[in-house]
Design a protein that fits this description.
The protein has eight helices and seven strands. By secondary structure, it is of the alpha/beta class. The chain has one domain: Rossmann fold (3-Layer(aba) Sandwich), CATH 3.40.50. Helix 2 packs across helix 3.
Amino acid sequence: MVDIEVYSHQEDYMKFQNLRPDYIKAITVSLDLAKKYVADKEEVILADFCCGTGSNSKEFASLLNGLRKVILVDINGGFLEIAKKSGIKSKDLILQESDILEASFLKECNIVLSIFAYHHVPDEKKQLYINKIKECLKDKGILVLTEIYFNNKNNCMEYYKKLFESIPSDKTIPGLKKFLQQTAESSDFEFKVSKDYADKQFEDNGFTLLHEEKIWSNDDNSDEKEGTFVQIYRL
């Protein structure tokens, strides 16, 4: 059995995610910035890496009143079935049930959403992940990189502990605490790195940082380079 059980029970996935203050704010900021930085509002082609249920693409397409093409890639067929039926406003909707490192792309995308996806790739394969982003992005295309960065596992565990404690008790639902604990402890799906590591990797691959915001946590004891960030890059 996988070490994050909700990945096998897709119906609960978004229920849990939508209770997370870091997740909710990160999605809002990511999509607002994506709308700001994408140039051609009429003919946008978007690739959504490790898209899950496609909810981010759906919301972004609504913000722009429809897209030219949306390419959804996820290894989980159950998530893609939910995405397919969700009503994403796009002239063309492409679903790829695939490991992101084995997906096929044309160099046609104005924008790539990598929202909590980079950390699902083992460190030794992260360069291959970036190669896939470059494979599908047009020159001067935009990458929305939304990520959680940690310098060590202990800080990761503390982050998820504080995250659960920050959710009002009357909002919690059965299974939420277990989901967050499994996420913090995961070795199947969670391969988080330091921000310095990621920053250097994207810079070395020719990406230019246009904008950056720290989303969570913002308490006085948190390291300024640890936590959830939204970064906008141009290739």
